[in-house]
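Researcher: Go.
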Amino acid sequence: MMRSVTDAGELQRLRSAGAVFVLYGTAHCQVCGVLRPQLDALLTREYPEFDGVYVDCARTPALCAQNGIFSLPVLQVYLDGSMVVEAARAFGLQQLRHQLERPVALWRAGGAAD
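Model: Structure:
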């Protein structure tokens, strides 16, 4: 399940080690509201070793701006500190799975995510 993060230091710490999905959104974004439970299910089913993080840009606009987030939703996926996928606005879970296939396989095998 995605947990909310409001602190820049905590977000940076989570992104720098291990595997994490970071979803930027707001409560008023309908696409964000539909996407969040789908990503929760995807994390549980296919990426259980990943952390899931949600950043509410209405509550923490400075944190979103510091990270270059100006349209919603935005999903960023990090493996050991490297962003391997960034998807914005309209994107599908099938497309996301396809983009993650190679970097996650390498990461799981202990190789570089590049």
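Model: Strands lie at 3-4, 19-25, 51-56, 74-79, 82-88.
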